């Protein structure tokens, strides 16, 4: 390596002015997250799409005079028109009304599944990691075995034994769904609970619930939030898959999954019956995914994992 | 997803369609044309295509190709082409001699003596002997073999006792007197026995091979010997199955097709797409199904073939629970639906509205039925009467009504339409309850339902098929809890009635009693719908929906 | 190492036993039995059938018998398909699903890694967005819609591929694409994020400073390290993909293993349900083990048997 000559450097002297106000107003962690998230264009597209979807789920059914469940056999399979904006289905029901009614059901299933997963997952993973040792081993083995039983068998048996209702559907979503959350919470708590600041808190005589509330949960919040945003689309996905198998909700309730699987054979003849519910499923899953990705990047700019 | 067709008997005198007319489309409503020349005659006039091969779909893997074990229509379809019984159902729908060249019946109609045709051979060259039938039938009856369809042989003397372990298999009235003579003794005179001998449970098996190897029927190969117009050359399980014309078949000169390729595609959209793409020569019933959404387009193109068959689609009422324990309420609900609208818009298969129990293929006057379709005035009258009897003031006081059905696209649509009709026409609140097939059937048999859908298809060409299941309240397939002494008496008397006309009259009276009590709401009489390569002729679809390819050919 | 593998094998056996037990009893909770039919069989014949298949035995005898049989790799006869045993079903169905699955995995890896690398190298530029939109779109479409639309457009409208069935290479293209779409998206995203992570490491900066070409850096340094998370994802992925997808197999009429499972549940074909479950679990458990071992071989920093999180 050649020596660097001294004349490539220049002494600038001490610059006093302005050193105090270089820094911007200090941001909290979450403010920082929001700022970084807002810079992610794809994620913002997701947010906008989702806001539109939620708005339409709330008000869409009110925008049309048609009822989502009333048959009109004389007007079956009508193409989209000024009267029926999204066309009609094989029983002459207005697709516009049904799609937004379906949005309510599908989003509800997704949200309910995510919240239940969160609740069970945090409890299970937290306790396992906190207690450690045999308890941890036993709880996680149980989760592994449950994970190993074919999901479809579990879902079908549930549907069969308890009947095909919205409640059973949500149970079927969450029966193995919480496992992922539990694993993530456990991993987080395990890695956090031996950090110096937790140790310090403990030394100072803090109780475990306090440490949990004050240190562990807030610090594990990021991965938990990301997992939640990804649980919602996977629940909507699973619902549509179960509908395809004929294990979906009982009509005339509309969900995107039942509508899409009803519309599948109509693709060749009445494509709008598949198009609208399918596009809604895709847009929703797309939005949640890019939001999840954006959150991940925003929460952990270095790891990006 | 698939409708369960469990045909017990592949016979039918009525409405056998010979697909030879209607080469250029239009709605083929399946009206039989008796003046049509027989396909043999037609075949000699028309030019045959060079390639006599077809591809069709059987939707699923045939559960077994051992005639003794078979109990489903998919297996039956293959067995009907590869095996041949003592008789076979001819193109006119009547049984004709097949492996038997001569049949003698004793004066009391209980002893049948069959003479085996000279030249009847197995595909490996072995002659077909009377012992092959004796072996096959006794194998089915042996309780150790647990054959589902053993009861198909119960018409034979001693068969039921032997199968239930109360008698010996050796004592059953089946006897190979010598290699060419088979003597069968029946328990009672059975007028349709020669139709039964065409059914697959009555097929022979090559006793030399079957006795030596119990797994002979598990795969194609030299162990799988058959005696019919075709023999199986390839069986890729769950994928496809190929049968080819048999050189050892006694009537091979009348067999034109050289090869039939059966694929096992169980998605009906895929099936129709393959047909549209020229990958199949036939799509739809009896072995597949056309997607309902395609029906309108197929009708518009004029390519849809339709044929009525002996079957009725019902909603059963549970007469043990309110409100359907009330006859007038049952009637009100039955009168309040618009069957024609349902058929035109939902099933779309040119089915006939059913206002009777027995299909018009058996009782022609049932095309009209006992009451009018969509009779809202009568419905309201009955509803008012029923409510009064129940001591209720208003419809809203009726207990909640639930329609149960098994998960299936078609059943679900029908249930939604009827739900809508009942709530609009009667003002009742109706909910739907769907369950997976095995769960549903158990619920129905256990009486755990209010209104439940159930189809019923004729086993053989006799009205008794549609009546006897309601003979006893706790009979295996009644499900409604309904019983009527007069009805029961008529059925029992009809069994011993020798005069056919009188017997028919008794059965009609029984049907009238049944319709008056209305434990079941008939909705429509089944049809079969399919599309096919229009050059394919001579495929015979019987009135029970059984396919025979023996006489089929492709026109040049 | 040997001790580690031995312990893991013991875990696999234990898990298998638990899964078999749970499935065995869950299955019997469902109403109905293999001989439920529309036209009820006479009770005597039904009893005879149950006895023939040993279903009249008390549950513990059936359970014990079953465990013994599984140990001998004998899954028993199918109740529905009387000409085949469950071993036959697996032996004919699995190779088909395997071929299709391997094709899909190959496709997913190739496309996924390329998309991921492009996205990472062009971080926050339009190439990144395009690649990620494609990737997210891949997970956004339910497989039954994807399969039906592919079939409609490429086979029916344009007639490039056959509509369905199994046979030539052309038959495998559409189902392989449909099957690969979700894993492709996952792999692309994984590759992208771990590439970004690796790219920020000092040794990459060093390599850049040394003046190595970007291509060389990508191939030699970044990709190799960035693929580690992809490898760990390959375990459960390949187990899922090679055991077949019910939806894809049904829509494309493919005689694979995936279709047997759902159909057998509907038929209450107990032995097939059990056999396919056991087979599936074995593949899943072993592929996870295999990946863990592989992982240790690729990345010297990871020591097997210590510090493993979860399972």
UniProtKB/TrEMBL annotation, chain A:
<dbReference type="InterPro" id="IPR000515">
    <property type="entry name" value="MetI-like"/>
</dbReference>
<keyword id="KW-0472">Membrane</keyword>
<keyword id="KW-1133">Transmembrane helix</keyword>
<protein>
    <submittedName>
        <fullName>Oligopeptide transport system permease protein</fullName>
    </submittedName>
</protein>
<feature type="transmembrane region" description="Helical">
    <location>
        <begin position="168"/>
        <end position="185"/>
    </location>
</feature>
<feature type="transmembrane region" description="Helical">
    <location>
        <begin position="142"/>
        <end position="162"/>
    </location>
</feature>
<dbReference type="InterPro" id="IPR035906">
    <property type="entry name" value="MetI-like_sf"/>
</dbReference>
<dbReference type="InterPro" id="IPR025966">
    <property type="entry name" value="OppC_N"/>
</dbReference>
<dbReference type="GO" id="GO:0005886">
    <property type="term" value="C:plasma membrane"/>
</dbReference>
<dbReference type="GO" id="GO:0055085">
    <property type="term" value="P:transmembrane transport"/>
</dbReference>
<feature type="transmembrane region" description="Helical">
    <location>
        <begin position="216"/>
        <end position="237"/>
    </location>
</feature>
<keyword id="KW-0812">Transmembrane</keyword>
<dbReference type="InterPro" id="IPR050366">
    <property type="entry name" value="BP-dependent_transpt_permease"/>
</dbReference>
<dbReference type="Pfam" id="PF00528">
    <property type="entry name" value="BPD_transp_1"/>
</dbReference>
<dbReference type="Pfam" id="PF12911">
    <property type="entry name" value="OppC_N"/>
</dbReference>
Automatic annotation (TrEMBL), chain B:
<dbReference type="InterPro" id="IPR030678">
    <property type="entry name" value="Peptide/Ni-bd"/>
</dbReference>
<keyword id="KW-0732">Signal</keyword>
<dbReference type="GO" id="GO:0015833">
    <property type="term" value="P:peptide transport"/>
</dbReference>
<dbReference type="GO" id="GO:0043190">
    <property type="term" value="C:ATP-binding cassette (ABC) transporter complex"/>
</dbReference>
<keyword id="KW-0571">Peptide transport</keyword>
<dbReference type="Pfam" id="PF00496">
    <property type="entry name" value="SBP_bac_5"/>
</dbReference>
<feature type="domain" description="Solute-binding protein family 5">
    <location>
        <begin position="95"/>
        <end position="477"/>
    </location>
</feature>
<protein>
    <submittedName>
        <fullName>Oligopeptide transport system substrate-binding protein</fullName>
    </submittedName>
</protein>
<dbReference type="GO" id="GO:0030288">
    <property type="term" value="C:outer membrane-bounded periplasmic space"/>
</dbReference>
<keyword id="KW-0813">Transport</keyword>
<dbReference type="InterPro" id="IPR023765">
    <property type="entry name" value="SBP_5_CS"/>
</dbReference>
<dbReference type="InterPro" id="IPR039424">
    <property type="entry name" value="SBP_5"/>
</dbReference>
<feature type="signal peptide">
    <location>
        <begin position="1"/>
        <end position="21"/>
    </location>
</feature>
<keyword id="KW-0653">Protein transport</keyword>
<dbReference type="InterPro" id="IPR000914">
    <property type="entry name" value="SBP_5_dom"/>
</dbReference>
Automatic annotation (TrEMBL), chain C:
<dbReference type="InterPro" id="IPR000515">
    <property type="entry name" value="MetI-like"/>
</dbReference>
<dbReference type="Pfam" id="PF00528">
    <property type="entry name" value="BPD_transp_1"/>
</dbReference>
<feature type="transmembrane region" description="Helical">
    <location>
        <begin position="98"/>
        <end position="121"/>
    </location>
</feature>
<keyword id="KW-1133">Transmembrane helix</keyword>
<keyword id="KW-0813">Transport</keyword>
<feature type="transmembrane region" description="Helical">
    <location>
        <begin position="133"/>
        <end position="154"/>
    </location>
</feature>
<feature type="transmembrane region" description="Helical">
    <location>
        <begin position="166"/>
        <end position="188"/>
    </location>
</feature>
<protein>
    <submittedName>
        <fullName>Oligopeptide transport system permease protein</fullName>
    </submittedName>
</protein>
<feature type="transmembrane region" description="Helical">
    <location>
        <begin position="9"/>
        <end position="30"/>
    </location>
</feature>
<feature type="transmembrane region" description="Helical">
    <location>
        <begin position="226"/>
        <end position="252"/>
    </location>
</feature>
<feature type="transmembrane region" description="Helical">
    <location>
        <begin position="272"/>
        <end position="298"/>
    </location>
</feature>
<keyword id="KW-1003">Cell membrane</keyword>
<dbReference type="Pfam" id="PF19300">
    <property type="entry name" value="BPD_transp_1_N"/>
</dbReference>
<dbReference type="InterPro" id="IPR045621">
    <property type="entry name" value="BPD_transp_1_N"/>
</dbReference>
<keyword id="KW-0812">Transmembrane</keyword>
